[in-house]
């Protein structure tokens, strides 16, 4: 009994990572209907950026967040203004092709710089501390912290989107990117802001992931896939749904891994497909 | 000096020429009626004036300055606001959020949230409702209020009576005197000739991308308009 509970709790905790993977993806898609196929690689890029900083300075990996997040945000803004804005239009194919190419560029760039070796950020004892909730049920403080952080990030983004003038402009741009220009708002800048936010969250996710599991230049596409599944399970356009979607995916994977370690990823995909069959718009589709 | 003037303005959709040498002008606090059949180029003209369509720089003068081909967001900041055809409200935003986005230019003037609610009291009651849950007439009021929030010196209204009941159209048009009283020039694109003759100082009639009739609205007779409109003695 306690064993089953343990599996569910561990799965829920992993959901925090998936929600962070998914949030940035969801933001870009929500504002400009652009599917960023390089999103998983952007997360991995964030992890490698932290690794580079740690190797150069010996600083505690978590502290890298202070530098990596704004750097990634700046990179996102520049990428959007310089390249991605030129791909947006009536045709949905160009942004897919360009972000697919970007994915290849990032992966191979990282291969050149860091080799194909599996890496891990040296977090020290941080990732092995746990608290005992019940006899036989231990919860790792690190994944618990990530889950709480994911909830804070989503809550913060909601506050930003619904309580600030810039957030209103983002939502307006999502509704109608042409009419927003008649309000005197440059849609190219708003798209840049959305990508900057997306990359900032991806950078955070990358650093946190890099301290918990192994990563390599080729790890991106799997992150992208988990992020996608979390979004679809939760319902497109609903950030809280995405958090729940990530947790559901995490639980499904934990159950699969308990049956046979080889079934971990497969079980997540099966749960995703089952939910897609039962509720094509996800569990919590956005109202209106 | 005219508020806005076009000089031999051409406009294109790709290779297709939609406007041919349009010459028009509008003064402060003047109401211009722009009429013509579907496809005559009325909306195209407004799109060129707002910067949504490219134009040669000197073919549009605003306050004497060439503005043709400027970006739409820059022109709003200089005082040209548009009430687009079909209203184009932001569907996931409330009435008040729609209006506040209209003020994003930061232009100051007589129009504030309170003044817009004063002009359209029904909107104050619906301020938290999603804009697209309102009736057609109320949505049109939001669209006009949103444009006013940028305190424009030139307001372009594209088919604001489209799809509205006649009694509602009268409600919407009742706002025009208050808008021109603030010194704003207004161009209304309108299918309803009777409505235009009531509100406009001068008319321009377009056909196939050219101005085919212009003059003071007063004293213009309907036969003359119909002939220009359809291009034949009607």
Verbal overview:
The complex is a heterodimer of chains A (288) and B (234). By secondary structure, chain A is mainly alpha-helical. Chain A has a domain at 16-123 and 130-217. Helix content of chain A is 72%, strand content 3%. Chain A has ten helices and two strands, in the order ααααββαααααα. Chain A has a two-stranded antiparallel ribbon. The relative contact order of chain A is 0.21. The mean pLDDT of chain A is 94. With 234 residues, chain B is of the alpha/beta class. Chain B is built from ten helices and ten strands. The radius of gyration of chain B is 17 Å and the shape is globular. At the A-B interface, helix 6 of A face helix 2 and helix 3 of B.
Brief descriptors of the model:
heterodimer; A: 288 residues; mainly alpha; two-stranded antiparallel ribbon; 2 strands; B: 234 residues; alpha/beta; 6-stranded mixed sheet; 4-stranded antiparallel sheet; 10 helices; 10 strands; 25% strand; globular
SSE topology:
The complex is a heterodimer of chains A (288) and B (234).
Chain A: H1 2-32, H2 39-57, H3 65-87, H4 93-114, E1 130-134, E2 137-140, H5 141-163, H6 165-175, H7 187-212, H8 220-234, H9 239-259, H10 264-278
Chain B: E1 4-13, E2 16-26, E3 31-35, H1 42-50, E4 60-62, E5 65-66, H2 72-78, E6 80-83, H3 95-102, H4 113-119, H5 121-125, H6 136-148, E7 154-158, H7 166-173, H8 176-181, E8 185-189, H9 193-199, E9 202-207, E10 210-216, H10 222-230
Parallel strand pairs in B: 3-8, 3-9, 6-7, 7-8
Antiparallel strand pairs in B: 1-2, 1-4, 4-5, 9-10
Task: Provide a count of the helices of chain B.
Answer: 10
- How many separate helices of chain A? 10
Overall mean pLDDT of chain A: 94
Question: From N to C, what is the helix and strand string of chain A?
Answer: HHHHEEHHHHHH
Please state the structural category of chain B. alpha/beta
- Low-confidence spans of chain B: pLDDT under 50, at least 5 residues? none
Large-scale geometry of chain A: globular
Helical amount of chain B: 25-40%
What amount of the residues of chain B lies in strands?
15-25%
Mean pLDDT of chain B, to the nearest integer, reads 93
Largest interface: A-B, 19 and 28 residues
Shape of chain B: globular
Q: Major beta sheet of chain A, specifics? A: 2 strands, antiparallel
Distance between the termini of chain A: 42 Å
Structural class of chain A: mainly alpha
